[in-house]
């Protein structure tokens, strides 16, 4: 069987299975194993040999799984997930929101801005957009609705703020991208800081303009404050600040490797939770259980992706695609625009990790052939994944807010509010494309 045709058929079958809502881990893994079997059992111009195909397929399956499990860098995934769970159950992540809420009480749209800042703080510790949206949606959305905020602003601000988990370090997508592309995860983390801050500021500007044009969307918050409330609220946020400094400053200064920072920050979060008497034994066990569940889910997807990448490398699809681009003599910007469009379209239907691992076998060889910086491209990819989390019809964060916000929340109201933020998302994406220095400034000054 022709290897190239087999590769194209493999991609097509994966897309069809995904459209049928088959879990992506099983899509990638089963298709890769079956197609690898056919590749060796039915070589181009040769006779069918089932035993040879089965031996080769099982060898690739076991060797890729073994290499993946023994990847030292991958240990940071469960460590950062544990950090997020412990920080959430100990109330460390919500302290930033509570602090911002007190300081911004008199600012028009202050609760929405505090929600966005709270999501940014949550993201700076947890690295999971979905977890951020779920946790902050339970806290922030009901409070804004109770204060008289419009449903569109109350829900969309949290849905959009939750996307910061993919960009602000630590970030699970950055970890997986770094492992699959063999780029520095430490530099990827640092590269996401400035774009993450720009995104956060852009969201705040949207809220301020929105409230200025429609004051009824955000009534003045009139909670009575006592002298010293602001100071006490700011001091309560110190555990979250400490954890962020351990991760970012430790990595930037060369004090810790990324894996060491993950382990130290997770242990520190547990110690702080116990010391402040916020982390009970039951909460700790629940944190471990959630960590095991989320880690297993991510690892299953990556298992399938690793096998699929090996299969694609056998078929020659990537070299063929590069040759076609070179023969077409198109501008690098056109290729980048096509890749961005591909990520945006897939983002409307698939989860971010699935998109990332499905597209890397095709996109990375093209980017490397054009001589572009893989760190910069990693930031672009994660930013596109962010946008996909809030893009209809299947913006994952919007449905999470719908699920945790209460039965009165309407999904069309969430997407109506998100549409205002999508404008600034496109502007930020264009800025990151035109000015790579925004992504590379901090990692270029790394130790």
From TrEMBL:
It comes from the Bacteria. It holds the Pfam family DctM. Keywords: Cell inner membrane, Cell membrane, Membrane, Transmembrane, Transmembrane helix, Transport. It is found in: Cell inner membrane. The chain crosses the membrane at residues 12-42, 111-137, 158-180, 192-212, 233-255, 261-286, 298-322, 334-362, 374-401, 421-442. Residues 11-436 form the TRAP C4-dicarboxylate transport system permease DctM subunit domain. It is a multi-pass membrane protein. Belongs to the TRAP transporter large permease family. PANTHER family: C4-DICARBOXYLATE TRAP TRANSPORTER LARGE PERMEASE PROTEIN DCTM, SIALIC ACID TRAP TRANSPORTER PERMEASE PROTEIN SIAT-RELATED. The complex comprises the extracytoplasmic solute receptor protein and the two transmembrane proteins. Part of the tripartite ATP-independent periplasmic (TRAP) transport system. This is TRAP transporter large permease protein. It comes from Sneathiella sedimenti.
């Amino acid at each position: 069987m022709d290897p190239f045709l087999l590769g194209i058929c493999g991609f097509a079958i994966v897309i069809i299975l995904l459209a049928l809502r088959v879990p992506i881990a099983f899509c990638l893994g089963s298709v890769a194993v079956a197609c690898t079997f056919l590749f060796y059992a039915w070589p181009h111009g040769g006779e069918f040999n089932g035993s040879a195909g089965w031996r080769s397929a099982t060898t690739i399956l076991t060797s890729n799984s073994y290499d993946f499990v023994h990847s030292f860098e991958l240990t940071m995934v469960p460590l950062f997930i544990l950090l997020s769970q412990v920080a959430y159950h100990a109330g460390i992540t919500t302290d930033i929101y509570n602090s911002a809420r007190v300081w911004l009480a008199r600012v028009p749209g202050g609760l929405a801005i505090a929600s966005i800042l709270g999501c940014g703080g949550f993201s700076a510790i947890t690295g999971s957009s979905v977890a951020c949206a779920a946790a902050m949606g339970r806290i922030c959305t009901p409070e804004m609705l109770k204060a008289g905020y419009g449903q569109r602003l109350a829900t969309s601000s949290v849905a959009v703020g939750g996307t910061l988990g993919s960009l602000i370090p630590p970030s699970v997508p950055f970890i997986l991208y770094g492992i699959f592309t063999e780029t520095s995860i430490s530099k990827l983390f640092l590269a996401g800081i400035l774009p993450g801050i720009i995104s956060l500021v852009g969201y705040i500007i949207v809220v301020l303009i929105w409230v200025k044009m429609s004051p009824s969307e955000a009534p003045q918050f009139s909670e009575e404050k006592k002298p010293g409330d602001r100071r006490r609220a700011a001091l309560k946020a110190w555990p979250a600040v400490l954890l962020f400094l351990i991760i970012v400053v430790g990595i930037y200064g060369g004090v810790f490797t990324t894996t060491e920072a993950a382990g130290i920050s997770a242990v520190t979060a547990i110690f702080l939770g116990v010391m402040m008497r916020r982390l009970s034994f039951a909460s700790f066990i629940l944190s471990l259980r959630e960590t095991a569940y989320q880690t297993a889910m991510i690892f299953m997807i990556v298992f399938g992706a690793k096998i699929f990448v090996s299969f694609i490398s056998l078929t020659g699809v990537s070299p063929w695609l590069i040759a076609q681009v070179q023969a077409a003599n198109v501008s690098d910007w056109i290729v980048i625009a096509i890749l961005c469009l591909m990520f945006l379209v897939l983002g409307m239907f698939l989860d971010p990790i699935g998109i990332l691992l499905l597209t890397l076998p095709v996109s990375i060889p093209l980017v490397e052939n054009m001589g572009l910086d893989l760190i910069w491209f990693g930031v672009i990819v994660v930013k596109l994944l962010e946008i996909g989390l809030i893009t209809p019809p299947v913006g994952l964060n919007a449905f999470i807010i719908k699920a945790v916000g209460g039965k009165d929340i309407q999904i069309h109201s969430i997407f109506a509010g998100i549409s205002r933020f999508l404008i600034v998302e496109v502007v930020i994406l264009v800025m990151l494309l035109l000015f790579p220095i925004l992504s590379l400034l901090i990692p270029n000054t790394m130790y």
